[in-house]
Amino acid sequence: MPTRIAEAQWTGTLSKGKGNVITGSGLTRGDYSFASRFESGSGTNPEELLGAAHAACFSMAFAMIVEQAGFTPEKIHTVARVTIEKGAGGFSITGIVLQTEAKIKNIDEKTFQEKALEAKNGCPVSRALASTPISVRATLLK
Fold this sequence. Notes:
33% of the residues lie in helices and 39% in strands. It has helices at 34-38, 46-68, 109-122, 124-128; strands at residues 6-11, 18-23, 29-33, 73-87, 90-104, 134-141. A 3-stranded antiparallel beta sheet has the order 1-2-3.
């Protein structure tokens, strides 16, 4: 299996510095700063990038799991909400909510919810983040 690469560079102090990130493919790149991470400044941040990776991973895992169960996924759209909070030991990612909507023919609600939970638990990004509370809110589209 391949090893994926991403890079980040930071220049300056925490509060006044700035940085940029780029994925190995060069398709994803962005600037980030203290303001884009902890305030409402423009640019990206590590939590947003982590959320994008998690949403993508979960969506692919969900597609695989429902297909293996004999269903055909038509569309899966997932939003990852990553929360960062300051605690006694510093900043921590305190939770991730995967909010997904999917159109899958002939699947019943109970099976749909079971497969969504299975995808959340089995997705490699979820497993890498096992120490973080992760929940899934799944809506079956008709």
